[in-house]
Design brief:
Helix content is 61%, strand content 8%. The protein is mainly α. A hairpin with a 7-residue loop joins strand 2 and strand 3. The radius of gyration is 18 Å and the shape is globular.
Length: 144
């Protein structure tokens, strides 16, 4: 293995490499479909909070409002999400999974679990849980 010098001690370097490896394998897993990680993320949040607004989904995933419109349009066009005007705020849209969206979410989750098992095969269940907990501290730090 080639020496990395100071890079070997930098968390950001290792996070980027791990992220790149995960993203590449994910892309290969779903290469024959129109699905991307971000679309799965939207489906997942809508599944967890039926009737939620586009804005709330964007906030949960760290996606800008302008980008959310295009993502939701893609999911509506694919028949996976139903969008309707929210009752409480006529300027907002509420989102729900369609039956096809629920089926797609289940199908993707099964494929993603296989993808993660492949990518994380050298980690124990406890190590995976620790990794997720540590990564949450990085991307969603609490204020003190």
């Amino acid at each position: 293995m080639t020496a990395l010098g100071p890079l070997d001690e930098l968390v950001g370097y290792h996070l980027r490499r791990a992220s790149s490896a995960m993203k590449s394998d994910f892309a290969q897993t779903f290469a024959e479909t129109a699905m991307r990680q971000v679309l799965f993320g939207v489906l997942s949040v809508v599944s967890a909070a039926p009737g939620t607004s586009q804005g709330k989904v964007g906030e949960a995933l760290g996606i800008q409002r302008a980008n959310m419109v295009a993502l939701v349009n893609d999911l509506v066009d694919l028949g996976l999400v139903a969008r309707k005007t929210a009752r409480r705020d006529r300027r907002a849209f509420s989102l729900n999974l369609t039956p096809a969206g629920e089926a797609k979410l289940r199908e993707m989750l099964e494929q993603i679990r296989t993808h993660e098992d492949r990518m994380l095969q050298n980690l124990t269940t406890e190590e995976r849980e620790t990794l997720i907990a540590l990564l949450r501290k990085v991307h969603a730090p609490t204020s003190t």
